[in-house]
TrEMBL record:
<feature type="domain" description="RRP12 N-terminal HEAT">
    <location>
        <begin position="6"/>
        <end position="280"/>
    </location>
</feature>
<feature type="compositionally biased region" description="Basic residues">
    <location>
        <begin position="1299"/>
        <end position="1314"/>
    </location>
</feature>
<comment type="similarity">
    <text>Belongs to the RRP12 family.</text>
</comment>
<dbReference type="GO" id="GO:0005634">
    <property type="term" value="C:nucleus"/>
</dbReference>
<dbReference type="Pfam" id="PF08161">
    <property type="entry name" value="RRP12_HEAT"/>
</dbReference>
<feature type="compositionally biased region" description="Basic residues">
    <location>
        <begin position="1210"/>
        <end position="1227"/>
    </location>
</feature>
<dbReference type="InterPro" id="IPR011989">
    <property type="entry name" value="ARM-like"/>
</dbReference>
<feature type="compositionally biased region" description="Basic residues">
    <location>
        <begin position="1265"/>
        <end position="1274"/>
    </location>
</feature>
<feature type="compositionally biased region" description="Basic and acidic residues">
    <location>
        <begin position="1038"/>
        <end position="1047"/>
    </location>
</feature>
<protein>
    <recommendedName>
        <fullName>Ribosomal RNA-processing protein 12-like conserved domain-containing protein</fullName>
    </recommendedName>
</protein>
<dbReference type="InterPro" id="IPR016024">
    <property type="entry name" value="ARM-type_fold"/>
</dbReference>
<feature type="compositionally biased region" description="Low complexity">
    <location>
        <begin position="1284"/>
        <end position="1296"/>
    </location>
</feature>
<dbReference type="InterPro" id="IPR052087">
    <property type="entry name" value="RRP12"/>
</dbReference>
<dbReference type="InterPro" id="IPR057860">
    <property type="entry name" value="HEAT_RRP12_N"/>
</dbReference>
<feature type="domain" description="RRP12 HEAT">
    <location>
        <begin position="348"/>
        <end position="663"/>
    </location>
</feature>
<feature type="region of interest" description="Disordered">
    <location>
        <begin position="1034"/>
        <end position="1314"/>
    </location>
</feature>
<feature type="compositionally biased region" description="Basic residues">
    <location>
        <begin position="1109"/>
        <end position="1118"/>
    </location>
</feature>
């Protein structure tokens, strides 16, 4: 009855609060408490005193004193008084309590001495003692010693509630004593009580070895020791460090008693000490205790699965705390503890192995720091290197021992710990873990049955590569690809090197990998001359794999400024001669330039650049991230500028080479080359780029003249193609692409030249030329904002003049140009009055002129949202959102944004359905994105939009339905209620339209309304003639809920809760979901099911079934052999002949297994039944005959026939058995199979005496699906016309028949029955 759920924050009248809270309670203790509160309230009223906490405290203490002196004393009244006192005393001012502390404590201790066996009295009294003690004078321990010791003794009380209350009170007292003189004495009191209890149980043997200590765990003293350990779990983190140092050795010795309950209490107590951030920990004693624990659990015989994982977590958290307090002490103890924990990996229980491996990994990550590593490296670098090994060396030796065969069952757990050690050591791992790398290489050579964790092995090798670098790694494990037999080399290292190489040297690639590739290329030519094509192909694959390392070597190399020149000539030759290596070289150059530009501080905005950055960071593992963090320290802006200067020095060589390769490649292979040219041009000398640009422009001018000749006229619908025949128009586009790639490196004069050449091309009759011209214009506006500011008037005029002749294929790139010009005009303060073709009307302000320009361009953007091309459509939506964000940030009152919204709203007055539909779709997109800013406009917009539902234009209706979906998604239920009636009435106008699929769309929208507003609200506004739709929706919802309720377990419930929480967030815009025609036909079918079946519905169902079958056939025909190859997580190594043959041989087996039970369909959907070619059926038939011959001597079954003849298989003990396809059969059942009627001499079926006629069947009856049992019983009566009664069989009762799925129609069989 300490608080009984009452809020502690009472008002100024504690008595009134108690009465209000407990007045309805019938519990006797609560009624006594209310009586005490009423009595004290009356006393205060009689004395004209306010019912303040101080007055209530004084009155309660007077009553308590009288009650103690009364004989005989009423225990219930005493309990009620101290309970009242515990509720008031916390709010009494500390000075008042301090002045009355001695008298108050004396009375409270008298209560504890008199009523020590009553829990209801002791608990509130202990709370009062705690409050008074913490408020007393803490400079002297003598007045506080007695109440503290009494409260401490209650911590081992036999009553759980009293014990828990006392432990909480004592821990709060200790927290209040901190930083006061009494703290040390109080801590010593706790230690003294603990030691006295142990001596009472163990005697003088405390601190001796395990053999000399014998404890009877059932004694009262042992139980008190356990209670005291539970108290220490709260007290140990809040007592002094000196006291903790006295307790820790005792706890470590007690663990050796091998008492399970005692051990668990000690581990929990030490865990609380380790994780408490404010605890005072003596580092030496704590380190010794952790070392003792690790040694004990590793050397003990039987390892308890409940204790060892707890101990490993304690050691992990303890050493993490030690490392923050005193790294030197942690380092001195870490090697021995690491070795002890490593020994646990040989345990049999998986829980112990997992806990030990996780502990090792976290110890490495938290305790192996730079100072520890440097200490080990310094010792190794000393001449002679004599003396004891450093701590980090010992840890490395232990890590290497984890790869021994005695830990083979735990390699999958041990290898991540080894990987973590590589990450922690970094480059020093080359000196400290050479043996570990060699051991990892030997493990790779083990067969798959001995090495089941090859993925973890490769990660450990990758961590070694990332830590020490590929050059040092290959010094330990060379590739050995110069051997005569490549199978004996370490070519399996190449994929690992490719994934984990970072911070390498370009000089290493030039000095080692390129010469090796040259030697292998020479060997390839030699093998071709010797007539060994397979070996030559292997060499060619190795050469390509070595070159594939180039992008990885160019991932933050450390010597770009000094070593790039050594590989530049080789890269140029490979670009010119090696067609298959061009993509790798271009990727490497772009990575090299991009990373240095980022380090220099350049702003990256291009799509290709951002995509490259995302690709570089998407596959980084933790090892690569650690290595990247180390390498980036050397990538200062000065170092990056020096590297870029070194690369730019070879731009005179690379640019013409790339130009020539670009011209020679088909259009679909020019993307990488164009991006590489743009990257090199962005860092090259402007004069160099300008010289190349002038040469390109001359060729562009010549190609333009040739394309303008009448004989070279081409189809205006020409788009990008890979035709081998080159035309003047295609040459013109190629040179425009080359000029586009140089935009970043052009100066003002060259930019003007490029702009002047692109403007006329905007009105060219060729769509391909227009596309290139718009790309140039957009690139200039994006890369050169200053040029856009100066030429904005001319650019706007050019865009307006070309609007009528813009080709459909160029519209997407025209939108990119419009993006920059519109956003530019939204940010400028003044505008030109004349924009060439478009002359602004005089107006009162520049804002109106700016809005006039933007409105003219926005109408074009709105129309682009209805383009057939998906990219153009999405680009138009993105442009609208970008303009909206730009307008939104112009002013605080959002006036510019609202003007932009009104521009789009004005397009609803368009004269064509196409324009109206586009405006509605654009408004839907804006409302979806800016719902918080535009929700207040929906009440004015929605009536006009719903009025459009009366239109007969399909395009408008589809857009309005999409707008309604957005409104439902973005408005709350309360905001939707006023418009619910008009929305439903407008939607129901198209509820019967199946031709345009509006019927399914309307159903989907109604379902969304039901989910948002509730079924009741929608029913009120639904017209009576359409109530069937709501009935169908309700039934479907109830059916789904019943199914979900029946199959959901606790885990599924948690998952569904999580999914509901995540789907409530704002999702990305999906144009297809809002406006697409491809709605789910299932919804429409469900709606149709509310009425009678129709022929249209039947045809739709048949069409759906045939369509699904044809899709399944197409999907199965496209399955690749790789789908059947069981190669695990690793890709199939095509150079490994053995693995390839095994994979290919398994294809046919797995396909056969997959197709055993799968029916075959013809192209028109008919079922194919093969009687002659089913070898499996023949084998099963022969086996069945043999089994029948064997079992015919045994017992008879149905009708005197053998079990085998009836298709039944049984076991000796009568357990359920499986048929030939692995399906279980119930005990006592039998199945019919068509094999019994096969004519072995001719085709067709035969009749057998005593058996049913072949091809007998149970006629299908729709009543079998009826929910009423009587209807189903009537349908089952058809069984009598097929099977004979079991009473005719011999031997009494027959088992119930089961129809086998193996029944097939056989050629020549005549059906019997109806």
């Amino acid at each position: 009855m300490e608080h009984d759920g009452m809020d502690d924050s009472m008002g100024d009248d504690p008595c009134g609060e108690i009465l209000r809270h407990f007045r309805r309670s019938q519990a006797p203790e609560h009624r006594h408490l209310c009586a005490i509160a009423m009595a004290i309230s009356e006393i205060l009223k009689e004395q004209s005193l306010p019912a303040s906490p101080t007055a209530c405290f004084a009155a309660a203490m007077s009553s308590l004193e009288r009650q103690i002196n009364t004989t005989p004393r009423d225990l219930a009244v005493t309990t009620a008084i101290v309970t009242f006192l515990s509720r008031v005393i916390d709010r009494v001012p500390p000075p008042v309590l301090r002045s009355k502390s001695e008298k108050t404590l004396q009375l409270l201790l008298q209560v504890l001495n008199a009523d020590s066996s009553v829990a209801g009295t002791v608990k509130p009294t202990l709370n009062c003692v705690r409050t008074v003690v913490t408020a007393s004078d803490l400079s002297s321990w003598l007045p506080l010693a007695k109440p503290f010791s009494i409260a401490l003794k209650y911590c081992v009380d036999q009553k759980p509630k009293v014990r828990k209350c006392a432990q909480k009170c004592v821990s709060q007292m200790l927290m209040g004593f901190q930083r006061h003189p009494v703290f040390t004495a109080a801590s010593d009191a706790v230690v003294s009580l603990f030691e006295s209890m142990l001596k009472a149980v163990i005697g003088p043997a405390l601190g001796q070895t395990q053999e000399k200590v014998k404890v009877a765990p059932g004694t009262a003293g042992a139980v008190e020791v356990l209670h005291m350990l539970g108290a220490l779990q709260l007290m140990l983190p809040v007592i002094s460090g000196k006291a903790v140092g006295r307790i820790l050795p005792v706890l470590a010795d007690l663990i050796q008693l091998r008492q399970k309950l005692l051990t668990r209490r000690i581990l929990d107590t030490m865990q609380e000490l380790a994780v408490s951030p404010t605890s005072e920990i003596p580092v030496n004693e704590f380190a010794n205790a952790l070392g003792t624990l690790a040694s004990y659990f590793s050397t003990s015989g039987k390892k308890d699965v409940d204790e060892v994982p707890v101990a490993t977590r304690l050691i992990q958290s303890g050493f993490e705390r030690l490392h923050t307090l005193e790294p030197s002490v942690s380092a001195s103890k870490l090697p021995s503890v690491f070795a002890s924990i490593a020994g646990l990996l040989a345990a049999e229980r998986e829980e112990i192995v997992y806990g030990a491996a996780d502990c090792l990994r976290n110890l490495v990550l938290s305790c192996v720091d730079e100072s520890l590593v440097q200490q080990g490296v310094s010792r190794l670098q000393q001449p002679g290197a004599h003396g004891p090994p450093s701590p980090v060396e010992k840890i490395c030796v232990t890590a290497e021992s984890l790869l021994g065969y005695q830990y083979s069952t735990a390699w999958d757990m041990a290898l991540p710990a080894v990987s973590a050690l590589f990450d922690a050591l970094g480059p020093a791992s080359y000196q400290l873990m050479r043996g570990t790398v060699k051991t990892l290489g030997e493990l790779q050579r083990l067969p798959d049955e001995d090495m089941t964790c090859r993925k973890q092995l490769h990660k450990a090798l990758g961590a070694a590569v990332a830590a020490m670098g590929p050059e040092q790694f290959l010094n330990i494990l060379p590739l050995d690809m110069d051997n005569a037999d490549l199978a004996s080399s370490r070519i399996w290292l190449l994929p690992i090197l490719k994934q984990y190489t970072i911070g390498a040297r370009l000089g290493f690639f030039a000095d080692h990998l390129l010469p090796l590739a040259s030697r292998l290329r020479a060997r390839e030519q030699k093998l071709i001359g010797e007539g060994k094509p397979v070996a030559a192909k292997n060499c060619e694959a190795c050469v390509e794999s070595l070159w594939a390392l180039l992008p990885s070597v160019c991932n933050y190399p450390v010597d770009t400024a000094t070593a790039f020149g050594r590989i530049a000539k080789t890269l140029g030759d490979a670009l010119n001669k090696e067609t298959g290596l061009r993509g790798l070289i271009c990727s490497a150059l772009r990575t090299l330039i991009l990373q240095n530009r980022m380090a220099r501080g350049d702003q990256l905005e291009g799509k290709d650049e951002l995509k490259t950055v995302e690709e570089l960071s998407s596959l980084d593992s933790s090892s690569v991230l650690d290595a990247k963090a180390r390498v980036k320290e050397f990538y200062t802006p000065d170092a990056a500028s020096a590297s870029l200067s070194a690369i730019a020095g070879y731009s005179r060589n690379f640019l013409p080479l790339l130009f020539n390769v670009f011209l020679a490649q088909p259009s679909e292979k020019r993307g990488d080359l164009q991006a590489t040219i743009a990257s090199i041009a962005s860092i090259s000398d402007p004069q160099t780029v300008k010289n190349f640009f002038i040469a390109i422009m001359k060729k562009l001018l010549q190609a333009t003249k040739e394309a303008g000749k009448p004989k070279d006229k081409q189809d205006s619908m020409q788009v990008d193609s890979g035709n081998a025949e080159e035309t003047p128009t295609s040459r013109r586009c190629v040179f425009m692409d080359l000029a586009l790639s140089l935009v970043r490196g052009l100066d003002e004069e060259a930019l003007s030249m490029l702009y002047e050449s692109a403007v006329p091309a905007l009105q060219d009759k060729e769509g391909l030329v227009q596309k290139k011209a718009y790309k140039i214009l957009a690139s200039i506006c994006k890369e050169k904002p200053d040029f856009l500011s100066r030429k904005s008037e001319d650019i706007l005029g050019a865009l307006l003049r070309s609007v009528d002749v813009c080709h459909a294929s160029a519209r997407r790139h025209r939108l990119d140009s419009l993006r920059y010009i519109i956003i530019h005009y939204t940010k400028v303060a003044t505008l030109p009055l004349n924009s060439g073709f478009y002359v602004l009307q005089a107006g009162p302000s520049y804002e109106q002129k700016k809005d006039q320009i933007i409105a003219t361009l926005i109408s074009e953007i709105i129309l682009a949202t209805k383009e057939a091309n998906k990219k153009t459509r999405n680009g138009a939506y993105d442009l609208l959102i970008a303009i909206g964000h730009a307008m939104e940030g112009l002013d605080d009152d959002k006036s510019s944004f609202m003007r932009f919204h009104n521009m789009i709203l004005g397009c609803l007055a368009g004269t064509t359905p196409h324009m109206i539909s586009a405006a509605v779709a654009s408004l839907a997109r804006l409302i979806y994105e800016f719902s918080s800013d535009l929700c207040h406009t929906i009440p004015q917009l929605l009536p006009s939009a719903l009025l459009l539902l009366k239109s007969r234009n399909r395009e408008i209706i589809k857009s309005v339905l999409g707008l309604v979906k957005v409104v439902i998604a973005r408005l709350s239920a309360a905001d939707l209620e006023p418009h619910l009636s008009s929305m439903v009435q407008g939607l129901m106008l198209w509820s019967d339209d199946s031709k345009n699929r509006f019927k399914a769309k309307v159903r989907e929208i109604i379902e969304r309304l039901v989910r948002r507003c509730g079924m009741t609200s929608v029913e009120k506004v639904m017209p009576p003639e359409h109530m069937k739709l709501l009935t169908s929706i309700r039934k479907k919802k109830e059916q789904a809920e019943r199914k979900k309720q029946g199959t959901m377990d606790e885990n599924d419930d948690a998952k569904s809760t999580k999914s509901r929480a995540t789907t409530a967030r704002r999702s990305a815009w999906d144009h297809t979901d809002i406006f697409s025609d491809d709605d789910d036909d299932g919804s429409e079918e469900d709606y149709q099911s509310t009425g009678a079946p129709t022929m249209a519905k039947t045809g739709s169902m048949a069409k759906t079934t045939n369509t699904s079958r044809s899709k399944k056939l197409r999907k199965s025909s496209k399955r690749l052999p790789e789908d059947f190859m069981d190669t695990g997580d690793e890709p199939l190594d095509l150079l490994d002949v053995k693995r390839t043959r095994e994979a290919l041989s398994s294809v046919s087996r797995k396909r056969k297994e997959d197709d055993e039970d799968e029916p075959q369909f013809a192209s028109d959907g008919r079922l194919i039944i093969d009687e002659n070619g089913d070898k499996k059926r023949k084998r099963s038939r022969d086996d069945s005959d043999d089994e029948a011959d064997t079992k015919s001597r045994g017992g008879k079954s149905f009708g005197g026939k053998s079990d085998a003849s009836m298709g039944k298989t049984s076991t000796k003990h009568g357990r359920p058995v499986k048929d030939s396809h692995g399906r279980k059969k119930a005990k006592g059942s039998w199945s019919y199979a068509g094999d019994d009627y096969v004519n072995r001499k001719a085709k067709g079926d035969i009749k057998k005496e005593g058996k049913h006629d072949p091809y007998a069947y149970w006629p299908l009856d729709p009543k079998m699906l009826n929910r009423r049992q009587a209807k189903r019983r009537t349908a089952r009566e058809g069984m009598a016309s097929v099977f004979k009664a079991g009473s005719k069989t011999k031997g009494g009762k027959a088992s119930k028949p089961s129809i086998s799925r193996k029944n097939k129609a056989h050629k020549g069989a005549k059906p019997k029955g109806k």
